Amino acid sequence: MIQTYTILSSIILLICVLPFTSYSKKKADLHFNEVKLTAIDGDADAQYELSGLYAEGEGVEQNLVEAVKWYRKAAEQGHDSAQYKVGLSYQNGVGVSKSDKEAYIWLSISAENGAPLNGRGKAGELADEIRKNLSTIEVEEAKEITKIRQQQISQRVEENYTRIINELNEDGWEINMKIEDDGSCFARAFRPVKPVSNTAQVSAPNWRIAFKSLRRHCKEWPVNNSESTKDHQITIPIAD
User: Fold this and answer.
1) Nearest-angstrom CA–CA distance, 106 and 87
2) What is the per-residue pLDDT for 225?
3) Which CATH superfamily is 22-161 part of?
C-alpha cells in the first residue's frame, strides 16, 4: 500500500512538473533567439548577454567556444565587461587555448576603459600578475598589439555613436557630445518642442554606455502623444 502511494505521488508530481519545465524551456529558447537576433544585428550588449547564455547553457546547449566568440565580438565594440571576460578566458584557457599574452592584452584594454563592475583596479591587478609570466619581448609585443586594438575599438565605438545619433535624429532629437574646460564630459539629447521643458539626467562610466542610455531614454519619450508637447532634454555626464 505504501509503495503504491509512493508511485502514485511520483506520477502526480511528474504530471505537475512537466508542463512547467516545458514552459520554462520554451521561454528560455525564445529569449535566446531574441537575444541572438539582436546580437547578430551588432548590438554589443546583446552580444555580451548571448555569451552568458552560451556559457550557462540557457536556451541553448552549453558552448564555451561560442561564448568566448561572442564575448570577443562585444569586446571589439568597446564593451568593457566583455573585454574583461575575454581576458579571463585566455588566462584560464576556457573556450580558447590558454594564452598569457592575449590575457594580458585584453585585461589591459579593460583596465584602460575602467568598466564599472570589474573596474580599472581588478583588471589592472590581473594584468600585472599575468605580466610576470611574460618575457620582456612578449610584454613589448603585447603593448604594441594593445595600442593597435584600442585604436580599432575606438573607431568601431565612434561608428556606433554615429549610428545611434542618426537613429535619434530621425526621431527629432538633437544630439551633442561635449568636453568642458574642467575635463568633465557629457552626452546630451534635446528635442525642441515648446513651451514646457522636461529633463532627465543620469550618469554613465563611458561614452558607449552613455549613448546606449541616451537611446533608451529617448525611446521612452515617444513623439506622438501628449508628452511630445514638452521640450525634452537628457544629459548624461561621463564619470571619470
Assistant:
1) 5
2) 42
3) Tetratricopeptide repeat domain (1.25.40.10)
